[in-house]
Design brief:
The chain has 90 residues and is an all-alpha fold. It has four helices and no strands. It is 86% helix and 0% strand. Helix 1 packs antiparallel against helix 2 and helix 3 packs antiparallel against helix 4.
């Protein structure tokens, strides 16, 4: 039976052969931070709900959703980078 770490290692090896920089970084992040991809739909959903509570026009809701997704994604990305950096330094 395969565990998560061996699947991550297999994916990293397969991706590094064809796309050495970006795919390897993505595989490393996904391997090191379990559940990182579960956070992306939550950020999108939180942005949509927040935008929908502040606007009535569908076009304005769409623009506000993108705006809040960028803000939330940026803030959470900075927190993630800080946590990974602190973990790497220790």
């Amino acid at each position: 039976m395969l565990n998560v770490l061996s699947v991550g290692a297999i994916c990293a090896d397969a991706l590094s052969a064809s796309y050495p920089s970006g795919a390897l970084l993505l595989a490393t992040l996904a391997d090191r931070v379990p559940g990182i991809f579960f956070g992306l739909p939550l950020v999108a959903l939180a942005s949509l709900v927040f935008a929908a509570t502040h606007h009535e026009d569908p076009a304005a809701i769409g623009l506000a959703t993108v705006h809040w997704s960028v803000w939330l994604g940026g803030i959470l990305g900075i927190v993630l980078a800080a946590v990974l950096l602190l973990g790497w330094m220790s």
